[in-house]
Amino acid sequence: MPRFQPEPPYRHGTPAGTAIVLVNLGTPEAPTAPALRRYLKQFLSDPRVVEIPKALWWLILNGIILNIRPARSAAKYATVWTDEGSPLRVHTERQAKLLKGWLGERGHRVEVAWAMRYGQPSVAAVFDRLKAAGNRRILVVPMYPQYAASTTATVVDEAARWLLQTRNQPEMRFLRNYHDDDGYLAALAASVERHWQQVGRLGDGDRLLMSFHGLPRRSLDLGDPYFCECHKTGRLLAERLGLRDDQYQICFQSRFGKAEWLQPYTAPTLHAWGQAGVRRVDVICPGFSADCLETLEEIAQEGRDDFLAAGGQAYHYIPALNEAPDWIAALGNLVERHLGGWETRRADDPQALAASAAAARKHGATT
Q: Which residues bind Fe(2+) (predicted)?
């Protein structure tokens, strides 16, 4: 077997193209047990996702989890599946199209694609297609606002594996995180404000719960910055919304297994609030750039049922940023900053001409 993948045909003089790839976690191809088994096997086999000795985890995964969990997960996916497919896939594809349009209006000549870290379209397949189309510069944008080894780093790992098999490598950059980006925070705050315009602001004793995906507590002890970045996002969002400390809570959802995970946990917090007489809870998931199973089923459905059953009276899930225009603009600004130094504007674009003139003046002033 050759060490490198075959190179696509190349014509000398072809302009170097630039591409942006939005990468999200992944999704099964269908809400069925066989599809979930394939997806979960790939996802849970990643050593960054589950940091347990490989031999022991292989037995647990293949002997127990993949024989029990696929059917249960398929039933959950069926409650949020749309006519177009998985919500995460639908939103990610739309975000890529809207981002391409936003960048095009700014004069950028770039290709915008999307991929799933687990599932299809795979990162490697998308890179292959972009390289064959003549793109020699690729900006990879993991769609996770807060960095974690089990999310963002897995995207970098996958890109590195592809590069190891590529003879003529493109130039590649990565967006690491955007947990404290002004545009991202402004878009989050605007989504909450729009929600409050419809249902009213929080009253006395009401709460805003910011639920982030959970990780094992061990990840924090080993130096993962995720917990701290989640708290910074939550604090900055609360400041923008003018909330007091007693009006919001940062929690972590999706606990799996018996080990301690990042706390406080979302589900027990909702249950305790309902029992304590909290009348209304609004929930937002700032760590998800697009709605998916974890937001639409676990939070919007299960969280609501837990809170109301415990005595709560009103429960609202605030949707993820999805295709909100202010979020697409924030994403575009993030991408623009990371494209710095890569000439992607049309030669006749006024902004490109102004930038070239400014560069010429600077060069003239320093020579």
A: 213, 294
